[in-house]
UniProtKB/TrEMBL annotation:
Keywords: ATP-binding, Cholesterol biosynthesis, Cholesterol metabolism, Cytoplasm, Kinase, Lipid biosynthesis, Lipid metabolism, Nucleotide-binding, Steroid biosynthesis, Steroid metabolism, Sterol biosynthesis, Sterol metabolism, Transferase. This is Phosphomevalonate kinase. GO terms for cellular component: cytosol. Transmembrane segments: none annotated. It comes from Anopheles maculatus.
Length: 192
């Protein structure tokens, strides 16, 4: 089976989900280093959203893709705009992000909605999909720089998967000394 770009489909697509500052990007980057860039890649659903936002608002895309205050300044507006686009086509940003898939293992570091999971299952088949929920307490997330923001932390983009119950792996990412164990669990999941 081939995808729409006539490239072989990935063997495994690892969907990472979790609240802001739970460590999704950190673990995705660390797993990529462990697997190697010949075997794996990271895609982000937020990248096409931020690319459009940067073009439209004449902003620095690199800063929007980062993890700093610059991105946080525009987060609420980007969420509102992207939610409106998803009402028209739930897979619009997933589809755009998938255009760069070209490795056997694809790590999607920012699954936020049930429709994101639905898109990947429908597009690539459920046998290729592995779902992971990464959790950390509010206290730990606050130590990492998280602060509750109305219109960000209480909307669908942060809360839609709170009641999703079909995770292949549920992990707590709270202690630096536990990262190796978490990475080994992720590696085993993509090897299965």
């Amino acid at each position: 089976m081939e995808n729409t770009q006539d490239r072989p489909l990935p063997r495994i697509i690892l969907l990472l989900s979790g609240k802001r500052k739970c460590g999704k990007d950190f673990l995705a980057d660390a797993l990529l280093k462990r697997l190697g860039t010949e075997e794996a890649q990271i895609i982000r659903i937020s990248e096409p959203i931020k690319r459009h936002w940067a073009d439209w608002m004449k902003l620095d895309l690199g800063e929007l893709l980062g993890d700093g205050a610059y991105k946080e300044r525009y987060r609420k507006e980007m969420i509102e705009w992207s939610d409106a686009r998803r009402q028209e086509d739930y897979g619009v940003f997933c589809r755009a992000a998938c255009t760069t898939i070209d490795r056997p293992i694809c790590i999607v570091s920012d699954i936020r909605r049930k429709t994101d999971v639905r898109y990947f299952r429908e597009m690539f088949g459920p046998e290729r999909i592995r779902t992971v929920r990464i959790e950390a307490s509010e206290a730990i997330r606050a130590e990492r720089g998280w602060r509750f923001q109305t219109g960000v932390d209480d909307v669908q983009s942060e809360c839609d998967l709170d009641d999703y119950g079909s995770w292949d792996l549920l992990m707590r990412n709270e202690h630096a000394d536990g990262v190796e164990g978490l990475l080994e669990r992720l590696r085993k999941l993509v090897s299965s």
